[in-house]
Amino acid sequence: MSRRILVVDDEQGVRAALTQLLEFEGYEVRAAASAADGIAEYRRWRPQLVFLDVKMAGMDGLEALRRLRELDPAAVVVMISGHATIQTAVEATQLGAYDILEKPLDTDRILVTLRNALSHLALHEENTRLRETIESRYEIVGRSAAVRGVIDKIDRVAATPARVLITGENGTGKELVARAIHRQSSRAAKPFVEVNCAAIPSELIESELFGHMKGSFTGAVADRAGKFEQADGGTLFLDEVGDMSLAAQAKVLRVLQDGVVTRIGGARPVSVDVRVLAATNKNLEAEIAAGRFRDDLFYRLNVVPIHVPALRERREDVPLLVAHFTAVLTEREGVPPRGFDAEAVQRMAEREWPGNVRELRNTIERLLILAAGSRIGAADVERLAAPAGAAPGGADLGAILQSRTFEEFKHAAERAYLLAKLTAYDWNVSETARALEMPRSNLYKKLERYGLSRDTAD
Q1: 3-state DSSP call for residue 95?
Q2: Cα–Cα distance between 195 and 74 in angstroms, integer?
Q3: Cα separations (Å) of 112 from 99, 101, 108, 117, 298?
Q4: Rounded to an integer, what distance in angstroms lies between the CA atom of residue 176 and that of residue 137?
Q5: Which architecture, in CATH terms, is 4-134?
Q6: pLDDT mean over 346-369
Q7: 4-134 with 145-309: one CATH topology?
């Protein structure tokens, strides 16, 4: 589709010459002989670029530029003038003009400016599309009372500087809540920095959070800013904060109290302005009682608690989630489009979903890829999703209980348990091992013993 260009100039010769040149280059062009007519045409036609004369009878080009920018702050306007001065150029730039060209117009200069302006516009449009894609990817989907309660809390707390502790099972969407709070806050234009505390080894978490200086430890080959510095002015999201070491907890508490960080190996404290949001799937009160989490840090983080419900607590949202994930997967990730029969959606709503929304999304993707036919039916759900009466991870609980010996039962149960946990953590072995409080090497040995891989879950 060709770009639309509007030419506004009170000289008929200039309008005709520009129109002829631009149409020859393949653009769709309209012309107006006055600023008032140009503004009216802009309202009707919404061109992608405007060539606007500075000196015209009646309303001049600078006043027209001001009104165009009020009408559309994203308007791309190139000014043209027969007697441009530095003052005119400065004023036009301050009003938002993309460039200013002098008469007599040079064909090469016009085309270079036009190409650059439209490239700038294309980049702006692509950024807008990316933002829309990201927004939809992190959209909270649901109309149940449980979800409405979460959204209401987000709306109330987002505009405040309060810290928020987000709790809920794995896969419920705690990160979506954190991103929604950031997006609706006064810090929305600043960075949103996420740290998965469960996925970072304990010996590296402090470097990750607070940064380090070159030579402060083996492997520190350059100065590096930590996540607190990277999030300065914005939001730091501490995901799975319950898995953070006690030493790191103490340092985080100090940052929350004083608003300064000191890099490992550094001597100069750095002031940071960061809003901290935290999330966990653990019961932190129980972790405090067991001596694994600091109560003073808990009280600092838990200013406003938000609990994200499990999918089994909001089954009425499953049809909406099925429609949402189907649209996302087919429109943005290239999965062949497919519809779901009402009975198939009903079967999915009846399931337990131990992996919550994350598991539901993965199942929908599997169905869209593997199901035969133009629509997905109840039989496809029964065949390709984990059986409704299955143990977590897809194992048949009845088969486990039918084990001939206690040793067979232990192996079958352990295999099912590990498969469920790996599925819940999206097959991140390091994160799963940390959650199970098991050395990663031991987990790899068990994966090999039981023949477990991501394909096992499909």
Answers
A1: coil
A2: 35
A3: 11, 11, 6, 9, 59
A4: 9
A5: 3-Layer(aba) Sandwich (3.40)
A6: 90
A7: yes
